[in-house]
Amino acid sequence: MLTFFNRAALLVVSLFAAGLAHSQTPTSRKPSTAPPAPAAKADKIMSIDELRTCMTMQQANEKNAALLLQTQDDYKRDQEAVKAEQADVAKASAAQRARLAALTTERETVAAAVTDLNARIGAAKKDEERAALEPERATLNERSAAFGKALDDYNAAQGALRDRVTALNTRIDALNARSKTVNDGIEPHKESVAKWREQCGSRRYREEDEIAIKKELAANK
Q1: Rounded to an integer, what distance in angstroms lies between the CA atom of residue 62 and that of residue 43?
Q2: pLDDT at position 184, please?
Q3: Portion of the chain with pLDDT greater than 90, in percent
């Protein structure tokens, strides 16, 4: 039985819009507007070797199309993950700024209270007067110790945040490098599909040859 070879669908790949504050986004390449290559004349039945070449080419095109789509899906997934991490880091940075502002206010308040207390202790003329100020001094010491612990916690969190920023920048650099090549395989793939169309599209072939070649290709997987 004679059968017409099915046309392969031309892969059209478009990239998503980015939005990373520090990451570049590759520009999608638009499909060529040039007229498609003319199909081969359907006046000659393909030999089994010609059909094998066409089927092998089609199989390679299908695998390459899947690889291209997977590459872009992976890029999009990683890009979204980086965007999410950027948002989390921005929130953490804002929280750290708020903590620092509160610590600064507390440091100034405690320092002023200590200065005032020392002045009153120095002005006290009797032991009883100085003794009366002792609870206030103890309270300020506790408050100063609490401030020191809060400052240590802030510094530890700030160090962890710096590590996150460094790791994030490394991921952004890697993503930027990938953005320059993620579309590189599109044009060669389109050329390969066009070559298949020219050599194989609308060509007739024997169904028994197709069955035999499918078995060959399946065995070689």
Answers
A1: 27
A2: 87
A3: 68
Within 57-209, strands assigned E span 204-206
Task: Calculate the CA 15 to chain-centre distance.
Answer: 13
Neighbours of 3 (CB within 10 A): 11
Q: Which residue, chain included where needed, has tokens 């089994």? A: 48
Q: Nearest-CA neighbor of 7 among 196, 156, 215?
A: 196
The pLDDT of residue 43 is: 55
Cα 87 to Cα 83: distance, rounded to the nearest angstrom: 6
Report which residue type is found at 79. Answer: Q
**Which residue, 18, 22, 23, is CA-closest to 176?**
23
DSSP result, 21-41: SS---PPPPPPP-SPPPPPPP
| CA distance linking residue 216 with residue 125, whole number of Å | 108
Do the beta carbons of residue 45 and residue 111 sit within 8 Å? no
Does residue 8 carry a pLDDT above 80?
no
Q: What distance, in Å, lies between the first and last C-alpha atoms of the chain? A: 27
Structure tokens at 206: 């024997």
The backbone torsions φ and ψ at residue 24, rounded to the nearest 5 degrees and listed phi first, read -85, 155
If you ran DSSP here, which 8-state letter would residue 44 be given? S
- Is the pLDDT score of 25 beyond 60? no
Strand partners, 205: 3
Per DSSP, 43 falls in state: S
